[in-house]
Amino acid sequence: MRVLASLPDSLMLVIPSRALVKFSIFNFQRPEALRDLLSKSNTLHSRLQAMPPLNPDKLPASDLHLRDCQEIAISNLETSFKAGKPRALIQMATGAGKTYTAITAIYRLLKYVGAKRVLFLVGRTAFTGSVFGQRQHTWGALSSAATL
Description:
The protein has helices at 31-39, 44-49, 68-82, 98-113, 125-144; strands at residues 2-7, 10-14, 20-24. It is mostly helical and 148 residues long. It has two domains: 2-39, no CATH class; 44-144, no CATH class. The longest helix is centred in the C-terminal third of the chain and has 20 residues, at 125-144.
């Protein structure tokens, strides 16, 4: 691949089929940021591997302030991340506690892995009010749960 022209927000590249392709650049790291990333020996993947299990003592899910399906979903999500699969979908029935599950998983990523950013997508604008209200309720419950 050879760069033909460089514009402020895009690159023009020639690909093997000789077609001209234009890519937009959304983010480009500064040299200092790249140096910091390369100098770190404690990568995100290694921190994920060191993340403690959700329920090491095999307590009932209710002792963790979770439902059984929530405990399974969070454990499977963390297993997926540890296996190097960064994309995941949690599908649960209506009223099963998807918001609480997502916030618990996010909390664990922030606390144990040191995640800097987490994208939490909400499908409907009417739902956002309940998410933020649930978040305030959830953080209190999470901070009181000893094993989380």
